[in-house]
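ARCHIVE CARD
SHELF: 3
SLOT: left
DATA:
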Amino acid sequence: MMKRTGYFIFILALFVFAADTYGFTLKPPAEVSREVSSAIRSGNAREVAKHFGPNVDIKFPGNEGTFSRNQAELIARNFFSRNAPASFTVQHQGPSRDGSLYVIGNYRTQNGEAYRVYFLIKTISGNTVLHLLQFEKQ
C-alpha cells in the first residue's frame, strides 16, 4: 500500500513539474485571458509566454509564423523592448465556435504608436494555452 501511495505522489509531482515547466495550465480560459492581458499591459514577455503551448502562432510586425515557445517569447520580448507599453485595453472578447476564447484589444506604446491585438486561448488535451498572438500596427 505504501509503495502505491509513493508512486502516486511521484506521478502527481511529475505532472505538476511538467505543467509548470511547459506552461500547461488547468486554469479556465477567462483567467488565462486576464493574466495574458495583464502581461501585455506591462510588456512582460515572460509572463505572456507562460501561457504558450509547445508551439504558438505569432504575428508581429516583421515576424509571422508558427514558433516554438522559446522563439515566440524572444519575439515578444524584442517587440516589447522596441515598443514599450503605455496602455492595453480589451475592446471585445468572447467564445469562438470551437469553444476557444478570443480577445481583441488596443495596445498603445510610449511613443504614441497604436496596435490592434488579437489573441486566442484554446483548451487542447485538457491544457489551456495561448494558441495565437497577433499585433497589427494601426
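SLOT: right
DATA:
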Amino acid sequence: MDRQEDGIRSARPPAGDAPPTRRSTGPVPLPSAVRSGRPPTSAGVRPPWWTTSGFYIGLGVAGALAVFVALGRLGYYDIWFIVDNLSSGFGPLILSLEFTTYSFVIGISFAFGLGLVRAHPPKVGKHLARKGTRGRFSFLWRWPLYGFATGFVATVRGTPFLVQMNIVAISLAYVYPQFTFLGWNQFCWFGLLALTINTTGYQAEVFRGGIQSVEAGQIEGAKAVGLTRTQTFFRITLPQTFRLITLPLTNEWISNFKTATILSALTVEEVYYWSKETIAINDVHPIEGFVMLAIFYLLINVTLSRVVTYIEKVRRIPGLGTPIPEVSYTKRVLRGELPARARG
C-alpha cells in the first residue's frame, strides 16, 4: 500500500504546473521559421513577392521577350515587319477560334452521352436470366449502344485527323459540291464537321474518366439515404464530374485549337493559312509569318491555361486533385530550406 501511494503521488503533477488540457499562461513562443529569420509558410501568411508564382511567370515572360528581341537584333527576322503586320492576322485568328469553339461546344453534347455509355458498360450475370427481372432484355440495346460508343472512340483516337478530314470532305464533296450557308462555303462546313467528330471522340474519354473517378462509396451512401439512381447521378456524380474534368476539357480545347490548323489543307483561310500563304509566300517573309503564328498561339493557349488553372484551384473538391506546387523546390532554394543532405 505504501508503494502504491508513493507511485500515485509521484504520478501527480506538481502543484504549480498547469493541467495537461490547459495552455500555460505567458507569451506563446514564435515558430522556428520566424526565429531563424525565414519567412513563415503557414496558411494565412502571405509569402514574399519574390517567392510567388506570379513573379516566376513575369520572369518567364520577360525572358521570352528578351529572346525575341535579341533574335530580331541578330537579324533572324524583321521585328518591325512583325509589329506592322500582326494586326492583319486578327481576322483569320477569329475564324480559327470560331472553328475551335463551335466544334468543341457541339462535341460536348454528343461526348457526354458517349462517355456516360462507356462509363457504365453492360454486365452479364445469371440474375438477368431470371423471369421478371428488371432489365431482362436490356442486352438488346445496351450492348449495341456500348459497342457503337467504344468503336467510335477507338476509331477517332486511333486515326490521324488529316485522314478523318479527307474522308469527310471527299465523301460529302460528291453530294454537296456547291454548298454555301451563313457565309461559309462547303469546305468550311466539311472542316467543321470533321473537327467536331474528332473532338467528340476525345471528349467522350474525358467524360468517362470523370464519371468513373467518383468514389463508389459515395454512390453507396446515396443509395443508403434513399436516393434513386437519377437523383444520385444529378446530385452526386455529375457535379463532381464537371469539377474533375475542368483541366482535361481545357487541354482538349487547346489541342482542338491547334488541330484546326490542318483545315488549311481544305483552303480554309484560318490563321495558319494566313501565315503560310499571305505572309510566308506572298510577302516573302516565312520566318516572320510563323513567328507571328507562334505569338498568337502562345497568347491564347497560355492565358487560357492559367485562367482555368486558377478557377480549378479555387473550385477544387477538397481531397481530390490536390495540386503539386509548381515551384516548390525553387522556393525552398530561395528561402534556404534545402534538406540537410543537399546543404552538404
